[in-house]
Amino acid sequence: MYNRLSQWQGNLLLVGRSLPMRWPLKMPDLRSRLSTAVPVELALPDDALMQALLVKLFSDRQLLPGKGVIDFLVMRMERSYAAASRIVAEMDARALEERREVRLPLARAVLNDVSIAEEAETLSNENWFKEAEE
Fold this sequence. Notes:
Layout: H1 2-7, H2 28-34, H3 47-60, H4 69-76, H5 81-98, H6 104-133
């Protein structure tokens, strides 16, 4: 595949949690070829990006969060688009269901519940991997 891409002047995108030079590759030829790749690290979003993302997600749902809600979430939530989307969706659903405004008490409750659910999912995944290894 690598040779064909070179012949066709194509591009190859590899994604991993570590640099290719740290991958446990057994083929010396592949290791050599990957060592010529230009690695790019994607960092976690900073506070400004997370704030902008939350503002957009709330705006998309026509929600106006109360004072301090966005700062509160940014300081305590996982830094990912998926987490931001999940939290805003849950806040929207609860605000409608419980007829509450999007204020700090709702943000605290949702963030707490999302964190508990994520911890349970992590434990479940860890147990699955342990069972699969046995």
